[in-house]
Design a protein that fits this description.
Radius of gyration: 22 Å
Order of helices and strands: HHHHHHHHHHHH
Low-confidence stretches: none
Number of helices: 12
Largest sheet: none
Oligomer: single chain
Helix content: over 70%
Shape: flat
Mean pLDDT: 80
Number of strands: 0
Structural class: mainly alpha
Number of domains: 1
Strand content: under 5%
């Protein structure tokens, strides 16, 4: 009750974007509390709808091996409980992402001018859209990654997937793709703030290709060529799009 009261009695923000250290810490605490509550609420929802979420994440695997042979296998009585809580944790983070992004923006807005705050809604919406798009690309790429991983060991290996390992791989792949696809939003934000210029980014295309390729090869959890290409190609396209948007913003 005291926590809710303290969140409701939020002091007015000082004009001109000036805040003391204590006010910054208090604002950070409020944003962390709100984000934590959102993640917890999302986790409860994911825990309740665990069956539907599990069926959704099994679709790439079932589409590869057939709906009659896509069962996952556990080796311990506690694996089912651990899997459900893991799904609740990941699901809570994904469901609470809009709230978390909004809290991040609300925390940094006191240091921005009024004309800079108008970008709040577009950047938050763009962040959610590109993250969802990255997760979707990872989801549709995952069957190709499974086929490659299943065949690389040779024909004498029979695959019996553990649900924890399977879900950890597909969720890690979706998170990596989602975060990687946030790069153009960050670049556009830096261009809008005047930190970097479109010409500076355009002059470093070769370095961008090298960095994107290295990140795709090292950061892809499945380490398969399909996922690497599915990550690298859109990232470079987004890099070029961010340069174009930066030029339009400057005009």
């Amino acid at each position: 009750m005291a926590l809710i009261t303290s969140l409701r009695r939020r002091p007015a923000r000082p004009a001109g974007g000036v805040m003391s250290l204590a006010e910054h810490l208090g604002e950070l605490r409020r944003r962390l509390v709100v984000s934590s509550l959102a993640v917890s609420a999302g986790g409860v929802v994911a825990f309740i709808f665990y069956g539907s979420l599990l069926a959704f994440f099994l679709r790439p695997y079932c589409g590869m091996v057939g709906s009659h042979h896509c069962d996952l296998y556990v080796t311990s009585p506690l694996d089912g409980v651990a899997l459900r809580f893991k799904m609740a944790a990941y699901g809570g983070l994904m469901l609470a992402l809009p709230v978390v992004l909004l809290q991040v923006w609300r925390f940094i807005t006191p240091g921005l001018q009024k004309n800079e705050r108008r970008y709040a809604v577009p950047f938050v919406l763009a962040s959610m859209v590109v993250f969802a798009f990255g997760a979707f690309v990872a989801w549709i790429t995952f069957p190709h990654a499974l086929r490659w991983l299943g065949g690389i060991g040779g024909p004498h290996l029979q695959a019996l997937y553990n649900p924890s390992s399977y879900l950890s791989l597909i969720l890690a792949l979706m998170v990596v793709f989602g975060i990687a696809f946030e790069v153009p939003v960050i670049l556009v934000a830096l261009e809008a703030a005047g930190v970097v210029k479109p010409e500076w980014l355009a002059a470093r295309r070769r370095w961008a290709i090298v960095i994107i390729t290295a990140f795709s090869a090292i950061g892809t959890p499945s380490s398969d060529p399909f996922s690497m290409l599915a990550l690298a190609v859109p990232m470079y396209v987004f890099y070029e799009v961010s340069i174009l948007i930066g030029k339009l913003l400057r005009r």
